[in-house]
Amino acid sequence: MKVSAGGVALSLAALVVFTLLIQPHAGASPPSAAASPADDRHAGLQWRFVRIKYHYLTEGTSIPQEFAGEPWFIDGPAAEQNLARRVKTATAIQVEDPIVLSIDDPRLFESPWIYFVEPGTLKLLETEVPILREFFLRGGVAMFDDFHGPLEWDNFEHEIKRVFPNRQIVEVPKDHPVFSCFYKIDGYPQVAGIGSFMQGRTWEKGGFVPHLRTILDDTGRPMMFINWNTDMGDGWEWSNVVEFPGYVKYTSMAYQMAINEIVYSLTH
After folding, report:
1. Domain boundaries, the chain
2. pLDDT reported for residue 242
């Protein structure tokens, strides 16, 4: 989302200071004792938040943007810092410091998991298409997050079809293990961006219904988790901001769904 923590000033009668734990919400169950940090199921696994710096539609133009800076860095660095801390405390996964990479960086193939924010603005270079295809076919997984509505979907679909022109984008079914591999999540959540939350709604740009979609490899493995019409990055970024105590339920949703996607990606 495009609202920065420093750019919002709300007058509150009192600040409600709270310590944010991953809390249960409608549609998700809290972790069982087996999913506590003492559980060594995921000991030995390593994960790093790798944010992808990509080219975008308005790059190098005078077309006005609705946000400051470049779309690939929206919510950063707070989003990755907060998510990395949560993965470290909620799981036994060894968490490394977040980094930023371009698609053509040779270090791309050292990470099993990468992150694209606002991919509705994505514009792949011709040289990047085969690199990204090879990354996926070697076993890599990408999380796409925070893009909304039919226009942004159309551009994303066009770009990802350049990578896999002969593979279908499919819905992740509700009984897929990604919804139960760490937390038990009964339905795919729509995490409101902070701007939408302040306006009393969960959606933006006509993206009323949240979807989790993917493209499968030849073995049926999801090569990506396409989080459309939801804003998990805002859920991570704003999780420690006391001015919005009502936003805690969306932070909970964002952490739980992201950790499930990460755990599934690292174990399949």
Report:
1. 36-267
2. 86
Of 54, 28, 3, the C-alpha closest to 259 is 28
Round to whole Å and give the CA distance between 253 and 232: 8
Of 222, 200, 201, give the one whose Cα is nearest residue 212.
222
The one-letter amino acid code at 259 reads I
Q: Quick: pLDDT tens for 245-263.
A: 999 999 999 999 999 999 9
Average pLDDT, the chain: 86
User: Does residue 135 sit in helix, strand or coil?
Assistant: helix
pLDDT number for residue 238: 93
Percent of the chain with pLDDT over 70: 82
For the domain spanning 36-267, the CATH number is 3.40.50.12140
Strand 28-29 versus strand 184-185 pairing type: antiparallel
In the numeric block, the tokens 């506590």 are attached to: 36
Closest CA to 140 of 244, 265, 7: 265
The CA distance from 37 to 94, in Å, is 11
Looking at per-residue pLDDT, the higher value among 20 and 214 belongs to: 214
How many Å apart are CA 132 and CA 135, to the nearest integer?
Answer: 5
Q: What's the gap between Cα 167 and its chain centre?
A: 22
User: Measured between alpha carbons, how far is 172 from 182 in angstroms, rounded to an integer?
Assistant: 17
Structure pTM? 0.84
Tell me the HSE value of 50 on the side-chain side, using a 13 A CA sphere. Answer: 20
Produce one character per residue of 160-195: b if its CB has 16 or more CB atoms within 10 Å, e if not.
Answer: beebbeebebeebeeebebbebbbbbeebbbbbbbb
